[in-house]
Amino acid sequence: MNVVLPIELVLTVGFSIAVFTLGCFIWGRARVSPGSLTFGLLAMCLALWTSADWFLHLQSTALPSQILIWKILFYLSVFFAPGFVLRIAAHVARHVKLQSSILAYFCSLFGFGVLAVAFVLREYGYDSHMITALFTVGSILGIFLYVMTMIIVGMILYPALWSHRSLPIVQRQASYAIVLLIPFLLAGGLQLISGPIPTGLLMPILCCLFIFISLLAFLRSNFLDVHLSPLEAFFVPLISCAIVVLMRARDLSEFIAFFIVCVAIGIYGVLAIQSLEEERKKRILSEETMFQLKRLDEARHDFVNMVAHQLRTPLAGIRGAASMLEAGDFGTLPKPAIEATLKISELAERLTSLSETFLNASRIEMGAFSSKQTTVCLEEILRTITREVEVPVQTKGLFLKIQFASNLTQCYQMDKEVFQNALFNLVDNAVKYTSHGGVRVEIMYSTGSLHVVISDTGQGMDSDDVHCLFQKFHRGEIARKSDKDGTGLGLYVVRQLVEAVGGRVTGESDGVGKGSTFRLTLPAHQIDDTLVER
Fold this sequence. Notes:
Layout: H1 10-29, H2 34-50, H3 52-58, H4 64-92, H5 99-123, H6 128-162, H7 168-194, H8 202-221, H9 230-247, H10 252-327, H11 335-366, E1 373-377, H12 378-388, H13 390-396, E2 399-404, E3 411-415, H14 416-432, E4 438-446, E5 449-456, H15 463-467, H16 477-482, H17 490-500, E6 504-509, E7 516-523, E8 525-526
Parallel strand pairs: 2-4
Antiparallel strand pairs: 1-3, 3-8, 4-5, 5-7, 6-7
Helix pairs in contact: 1-2, 1-8, 1-9, 2-4, 4-5, 4-6, 4-7, 5-6, 6-7, 7-8, 9-10, 10-11, 11-17, 14-17
C-alpha cells in the first residue's frame, strides 16, 4: 500500500524534519533574541536542502507550477544562507557592524536574480544555451559567495576564539559556531554544484552533525543567548520521530491513531517544558534574591564596621580628655568633679565596649567572629556594672545584691568582652523592667564554666514572650509600654555572642508581674586561688 513517506526516505525526511523542528523551537524559545530568528532561517534552509530527495520522489505527481515554486524556494534558500551565516557569526563575536552580511544579501539577491531569470526563460521555452549560461553564471556567483563567506566567518570568529581578552563563554560560543557554520556552508555549496538531486546519506549526516552541535551549544554555552534544558533538547528528536511515524500511516485508521499519539506527545512536551521553565524562573529569581541579600548583608556589615570604627575616634578623645582632667593636667579638681570625670571615663569605655559588641555580632553573622581569651577580674567587672546601673537603682529605690559561691576565685581565663557585655545587658534589663523590689546576681563556678543567675522582682513575662525572648527585634507588649526607645536587639546580641564562645543563656518567668530569671553560662578557667572578697 502506498504511503506518503517510503521506507528508503525515512532517514532523510526524518533528519530534515528534526532540523526544521529545532529551528522553530529555538525561534519560539527566544523570540526577543535576534540570533534565534537567524538560526531558525538557517535550520529551514538546511531542512529544505535535505528534503530534496523526498521532493524528487513526489515530482511525478506534482504540477509544473508546484515544481517551479519549490525550485525557486530551494535556490532562494541557497543564495541567502551565506547572509544568515554571517549574521550569526557577527552575533557570536559581538560585532555591532553588519556591513558584510548586508553586502552578502545584495550579492545573494543578484545571484538569485540570475537563476530566477533562467527559470522563467525555461518555463516559456527560450533558447537552452542561454538558460544553461545563466545557470552557470548564477552557480559561479553562488560558489564565490560561499567561499568569501567562509573567509569572512574565519576573520570574524578568529579574534573571539583566540584573543586573551575574550571571555571564556565567548570563546566557547565561537568554537561551536565554527564547527556548526563551516559544514553548513559546505552543504550549501554542494547544492550549487549538484543542484536538487539525490545526495544519499550525505545530507542526513550533515543534518545529524548540525543537530548535535547545535544542541550541545545551546545546552552548554547559551549559544545566541538561548539556553536549553536537557528535557527540551530531548523533545526535539522525539517530536520529529512522531511526525515521521505519522507520515508512514498506511490508511485512515492508522493516521488517526498516530495523529492522536503525536498530539499527546506534543501536549505532554509543552506541559513538561512549561513546568521546567517555571522552575527555571523560580531558580533564577531565588539566585538573584540570594545575590541581593548577600550584597545587602555585606553592605550592612560594612556599615556596622564603619559606625563602630567611627565611634572609636571621638570616644578615644573623650577618654583621653577625662584622663587628663583626672590626672590634674588642667589644675586640681574638687572631689565631686573628679568623681564625675571617672564616670565620664567609664561611660566612654562602656560605649567603646558596646561598639565592639555590635561589631562582633555582625562578625558572627558573617562567620568572621573570633573569641579572645584574657584574664578577667570578677570584682572589676562587677564594680563597673554596679556603677553603670547605680543611677536607675537609686532613683527607683531598688536593691542590687551580688552573691558569690564559696569556691569562686578572683581571676578567670575567659572572653572578657562577651562576659562583660552579656552580664551588663542582663543586669541592665532587670533594673529597667523592675519598679519595686530589686535584682539579685548569683555567681557560681563548676569545672570549666562560670554560671551567673540574674533574678528580679519586676514585670515578668508571659509564655509567648519567653518563647520569643532572644529573637531579633522582638519586644514583648509589657516591654514596649515601659520602654518605648528599645530596639529589641540587646538580648539577641547577647545570645549570639554567648553561643559564639560556646556558652548558653536562657530566660524564664512564672508569669506577668512575677519577675524574671536569666541564667548565663560561659566557658572559664580559674587561674589563681585568691578568694573573692565578699
